[in-house]
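Example record

The entry below shows one chain as it appears in the dataset: sequence first, then structure tokens.
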Amino acid sequence: MLSNAMRSCSTAVLALCLTCSGAGNEGTGGASPREVGDIVELLIADMSLPHEARPEGVPDSYGWAAGPRVGWGADPPPDWEAANMWGQIYPARGGNPALNVRVQVRAPVLLYLSKRDGQWHELQRTPSVEGAAYRQDFRGDENVPADVRREEDGTLSVRLTPGYNYHFWPQGDRAAISPEDIAGLASAFQARLVVDDPDLPDDRDQARIVASCGGDYWRSLSARWRSDWSNNGDWAIGRFRFVTTQWQVFTATTLTPDQIRANPPPLYP
């Protein structure tokens, strides 16, 4: 759906939101959910519960403004050849009062479930991300370079540009797919708040910044975005949740809750 690349769970699971343990994982992009059961419930929640807050500048007429949704799902056009995962970071609707904050992002991953063998296969997985600052409503695919900074662990953090989001994807190319073999897709990334300027007060506790995970199908590995959406379309867009000072996993999937529970995707094995 986006231009480049655009039920209920227990209270304990929702509060956890798959906060990643930093022990032994800082700088590797390898922080993992505590248990497989956690990723299962988070995937279900990220595709079924309302946003924690709506993203700033996204019209209510956009279906994903109010909550997560499945787009193309597991049924891309039969002649399309590529897919990717992406993430998006926005100020929450009503504004973000924090002035000294950035969002650090790492570990984007995209998996597909094969009809042929019933197994999950990796399409994309990189330590860091690349992207740009896109107009919040994505009109005309308008974008400018994002205010990014390389962190000590080699991953990127971004300071949001007024009027723009940060739309990102794995480093490198889109992934080649066989449309007839796709039974499902699942994607994820990890994000947390970091201080922008260490010489200024830390106001991360005031931050109202939300993030969401998703992905697109593309006509080919090199197809460019068109205003009539004839070259790409989303397979799913996940729930917007608040970014906090702790690493969290943000996910999206095309699968139903029963399918997820029967065959959990190994997003962070």
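Notes for this example: Residues 36-46 form the longest helix (11 residues). Confidence is low (pLDDT under 50) at residues 1-19, 21-32.
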